[in-house]
């Protein structure tokens, strides 16, 4: 390939996740959770302030005992968008009480899914965080756990 292909430029800038902004969730089948503010910070780093360089539109739907969110993410301007990307969660918590944070949770989950389409934290979604050697290498590359000053970008 002689011509420089730039189609994955954004993907390559946001595919590696800083382990300090993840949590291992052990219930159910287990997974790695990514801090949503970290993701918003990465989007801001790449595209600029939310509402200017990027943003999202959310539509909520209620059915029976569930809430869903359809999220459209835009970059540059609202005409440059993709989605909807959807998420569905119960309106009640595990104790059967109304979850007053259900709307926020379902929107956050839909945003995480939408951001993944750009490559955000692709290493987590590709299962690389299940490999401790990979995570240790990322920490080393980011200067985490060393005497170096850590740069969060």
Description:
With 153 residues, the protein is α+β, with helices and mostly antiparallel strands. The chain has one domain (24-142). The protein is built from 5 helices and 5 strands, in the order αββαβββααα. It has helices spanning 9-14, 36-47, 102-116, 122-125, 132-142; strands at residues 22-25, 31-34, 54-63, 66-75, 81-90. The strands form 2 sheets. A 3-stranded antiparallel sheet has the order 3-4-5. Strand 3 (54-63) and strand 4 form a beta hairpin. The longest helix is centred in the last third of the chain and has 15 residues, at 102-116.
How many beta strands in the DSSP annotation?
5
Percent range for helical residues?
25-40%
In what order do the strands lie side by side in the largest sheet? 3-4-5
Distance between the termini: 30 Å
Query: Which runs of at least 5 residues are low in confidence (pLDDT < 50)?
Result: 148-153
Mean pLDDT, rounded to whole units?
A: 90
Assign the structural class, choosing from mainly alpha, mainly beta, alpha/beta, alpha+beta, or little secondary structure. Answer: alpha+beta
Shape: globular
Q: What is the percentage of strand-forming residues? A: 15-25%
**How many helices does DSSP assign?**
5
Element string (H = helix, E = strand): HEEHEEEHHH
How large, in whole angstroms, is the Cα Rg? 17 Å
């Amino acid at each position: 390939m002689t011509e420089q292909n730039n189609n994955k430029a954004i993907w390559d800038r946001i595919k590696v996740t800083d382990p300090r902004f993840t949590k291992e969730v052990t219930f159910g089948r287990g997974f790695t959770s990514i801090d949503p503010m970290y993701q918003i910070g990465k989007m801001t780093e790449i595209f600029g302030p939310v509402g200017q360089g990027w943003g999202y539109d959310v539509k909520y739907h209620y059915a029976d005992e569930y809430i869903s969110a359809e999220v459209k993410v835009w970059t540059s301007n609202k005409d440059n968008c993709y989605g909807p990307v959807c998420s569905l969660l119960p309106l009640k918590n595990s104790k059967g009480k109304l979850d007053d944070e259900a709307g926020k949770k379902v929107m956050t989950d839909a945003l995480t899914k939408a951001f993944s389409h750009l490559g955000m934290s692709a290493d987590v979604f590709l299962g690389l965080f299940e490999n401790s050697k990979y995570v240790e290498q990322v920490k080393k590359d980011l200067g985490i756990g060393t005497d170096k000053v850590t740069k969060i970008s």
